[in-house]
Amino acid sequence: MEHHDEHDLGLAHDLKAMTQLASRRRALGWFAGASGAAMLAACDGGSSGTTSSTSSSGTTTTATPTPTASATATPTPTATSTSSTCVVDPTETNGPYPADGTNTSSGATSNVLTASNVVRSDIRTSFVGSSTTTAAGVQVTLTLTLVNVNAACAPLAGYAIYIWHCDRDGKYSLYDLPAESYLRGVGVTDSNGQVTFTTIFPGCYSGRWPHIHFEVFSSLANATGGRYATLISQLAMPSAACSTVYNNATGYTTSIRNFASVSINSDNVFGDNTSAQIAQQTPVMSGSVAAGYSATAVIGIAR
């Protein structure tokens, strides 16, 4: 009996078998694609940013990705303004020359807070007693913004801030200069938590970094009553401004030598503060010796 190998059944048989095989493969491909897409969709839960479909010709196409929520969300802005970032100012000594009723000078207690005209924006002129001397020096317009650290740095209105500092020779009124009362004054914060003073750039005396003292009171009534301060602290004058003023302005000669021998890190007031505290305690200044300077600083308290 003649035996025929199954691999040699003739051309017609082979063509028929190839056609049937191709049809089965297309069907299997279609079902595999459909079931795979269904499985992917089920795993994705409908949140996938990419979808796939298969055309009737068997060609797979990819749709444009759908952006996810994280890709379209507005980025959180970096905190760069004083209204969005703040720290609690450290408590500092009010020093030996506060004139706030806490100490004496030449046997008498000095307390400018009880003076009827202590509330003033321009503090360059003496206002207690008979003297009306105006302190000489480079003009500084200082704006302080008082904020509540516990309420996202919200401004605090209606608070009183008392500031004082030495003159360009490093001397304090009512103490080194008993007849003078300049470079002292109180201001009340407005709806923006701000108060502005016109003063001069303080000199640098031996052993201390150049600074401005301040006391914060919860109300003007508390300020003028004295000894009710919510915060007693100091501002550190910027190093670059100190160098410029002391080396270029008239009357600051003694400050040149004193400033060369101090540093903010070794200062007995600022030296133990954190970098964030010192940054906030240091006013941002712009201007010149000839035109004067504008300065701004944030004061943070926890309410």
Automatic annotation (TrEMBL):
Domain Intradiol ring-cleavage dioxygenases, chain residue ranges per copy: 134-208
UniProt superkingdom: Bacteria
Record carries keyword Oxidoreductase: yes
Bias (Low complexity) ranges: 43-85
InterPro entries for this protein: Intradiol_dOase_C, Intradiol_dOase_core
Any one Gene Ontology molecular-function term assigned to this protein's record: oxidoreductase activity, acting on single donors with incorporation of molecular oxygen, incorporation of two atoms of oxygen
Identification of the protein by name: Protocatechuate 3,4-dioxygenase beta subunit
Claim: Oxidoreductase is one of the keywords in the record: yes
Keyword terms of this UniProt record: Dioxygenase, Oxidoreductase
SUPFAM superfamilies: Aromatic compound dioxygenase (SSF49482)
Pfam families: Dioxygenase_C
Region (Disordered) residue spans: 43-109
